[in-house]
Amino acid sequence: MRLTSLPAVAIAFIALALVPAPASAHLVRSRAMDDPTICAIFDAANTWDIETSEIAMKKGSTKEVRDLAAMFVKDHGSVRQQGRDLVKKLGVTPTPPKDFALVADHEQAMKKLNSTSGKEFDRAYLTHEVSYHKAVIDAINGTLLPATQNAELKSLQVAVAPAFTAHMMAAQRLLDGMK
Known about the structure:
This protein is an all-alpha fold. The protein has six helices and no strands. It is 74% helix and 0% strand.
């Protein structure tokens, strides 16, 4: 299956997936979300998955892992730009949450990926991507999408949502093939 034939994949809100799904759902529900905060999370989430996938492009021990990572970098870059273009069009100032603890979680994920190699790296990266996408799907459907007020921001999320599952499934297939 060629995932690149899908529309550009929005990996918005992936930042929430850096913690286990139940924790991320609680995190989102525990604070009021407004569009400027959602825009900031959108941008950070795409940036962070670009960063983890850039590591995988270099360190992946198989062509399949490197190719998947390259696709994620391309997809996330495209969607991040769509989000930035929308922010500019709307005149919104993205406002990260005051206690954006997920920055530390991203740094921890980066350290783990940078400290492993070979098959261990591949397994760590793919496991990260599967849990990341699962948590994102749950957070978007349960909290973030319903909290979005702007119709264009909501439309962007809805348009790219099916690709979240495609990314998760692609990473899971590669992970399953390692066993």
